[in-house]
Amino acid sequence: MPQQPYINTYEDPALKKATISEIKNTSIPNVGLRPVKTTSTTVDDATVASRPAKTELDSAVGSAINVNTSDSVERIVKTPDGTIVIVNTNKEVTVNTYEDISEQKFINNVSGGILAVGTVTGTTYLNEVSNVNKLGFNVGGGFSITDLGNGTASVGLTGSSVLEDNVEVIGTSVGAVDAGYTFPIGMTFTQFVMAISQKTIPPTYTPPTLSLAGSPTVGQFEIGTITNILFTRTFTQNDAGSQTANRLYKNAVLISSSFPYTDNSVQLTGSTISYQAQVDYAQGPIKNDNMGNPSPAGRINAGTISSNTLSYVGIRRSFYGTPLTTPTTSNDVRAMSGSSFNTANNPDVNASGENLVPSPTPNYTITIPIGATRVTFAYPDTSRSVASVRYQELAFSEVKSNFTQTTVSVAGANSYLPVSYRVYTYVPVEPFSQEVHYLVFI
Largest alpha-carbon pair distance within the chain? Predict the structure, then answer.
């Protein structure tokens, strides 16, 4: 950048007078503008090289200034963006305070961080002591100034850069700010932009989960069944702390504090056996919100979690087939080839076998092979008398009346607790000449 002439006060007085007249066409400013003592002249390069070094008044947002200029150092005043606008002259402005002068400069806040420099007269300056002239600003009319020492100051703009009153958002939303929010008095422009463009979103805390599994799985077991059940559990910590204890309960009684665990020789009866696991866990960590700040609301505290419940129970079977003789004992009934857990009253038909739905579903279907000499089915007498037996190949005709009922005491698996069964048997005049199917509705 080419060297510009400086406005100084120690040059030839004749030149000084000439150059001062160049900038005296600026009107006197209003009260409250900030004056700077200066004069103007044009000098050659040799004279410039002989001057003392200049120290810039670098600008930043600050507060008040007290610039000591008695050390005979030239200084340059800049705005926050490093710009000085000179009124009616294109010469660079410096401040020289070690020579008596009669002309002054005022600095006025134009807009957008630009300072306008013009010519004034008068002798009112801040921090003027004795015969030592100092650079002065009337703080409060748009400037904030900080003395950085060594004759250097930071100059910032104030005034409209902060809110001068509380501003409530009414009837609309502004960026990330909803109606009802109040921008507080004194909020800076940076804070305003942050308020409308950055919305704090708290983190989501996910509690732990616990599941219990058994092998064999819960299902249909014949009453009296004896089995070993292997239990495993899955604990997912999520945002909780680590697990601190394990427990397995059987019908609410603690049976184990570790996993996997096998409950051996469990006999399934008509009473339900329930298993449930529990895990104790520590407090989880605090997560940050989307702004990177700790957000403890919703943090997972230390606690206990319970798993799902696994319920095992024994069920009575019904038995059916085409035996050679009519069953009369528990072993005869259990020896038949077919069995079903569906022994309850059929909801699709009434006690007389009449359909309650358009297409009723049978409790089970008996396949009768060629040459069979009888058909038998048996089920616990806790259910009603058979409602219907339908001959599939004969247009689903009713054949219930062909069967004769007897009663037999039938045990569960492993000879568990015999109970009374209804036993129905049909003996045809001739063995069946083709395979047919009987549908049984209890």
Answer: 151
- Look up residue 18 and give its two tokens: 């000439």
Residue type, position 248, single letter: L
Query: How many structural domains compose the chain?
Result: 4
Residue at which a domain ends, from 282, 315, 348: 315
**Same-domain pairing of 300 and 337:** no
Are 401 and 424 in contact, with CB atoms under 8 Å apart? no
Q: Please identify which residue in the block is written with the tokens 């900038």.
A: 23
Q: How many CB atoms are located within 10 Å of the residue 234 CB?
A: 12
pLDDT tens-digit readout, 143-188: 555 656 554 555 565 555 688 889 999 999 888 888 999 989 988 8
Residue type for position 144: S
Chain position carrying tokens 């009866």:
269
What pLDDT, on the 0 to 100 scale, is given for residue 146? Answer: 60
Q: Is 7 inside any structural domain?
A: no
Domain's final residue, options 269, 297, 315: 315
Token duo for residue 105: 């400069």
Mean per-residue pLDDT over the chain, rounded: 76
Rounded Cα distance between 345 and 355, Å, is 13
Query: Is residue 174 located within the same domain as residue 150?
Result: no
Q: What is the pLDDT of residue 326?
A: 97
Q: Is the Cα torsion angle 31, 34, 38, 44 positive or negative in sign? A: negative
Q: Is 97 in the same domain as 152? A: yes
Q: What's the rounded Cα separation, in Å, for the pair 112 and 65?
A: 21
The span from the CA of 59 to the CA of 214, in Å, is: 75
Please give the pLDDT value at position 191. Answer: 85
> Looking at residues 272-291, what average pLDDT do you find?
97
Amino acid residing at 392: Q
Tell me: do 306 and 416 sit in the same domain.
no
Residue range of the domain that includes 193? 167-197
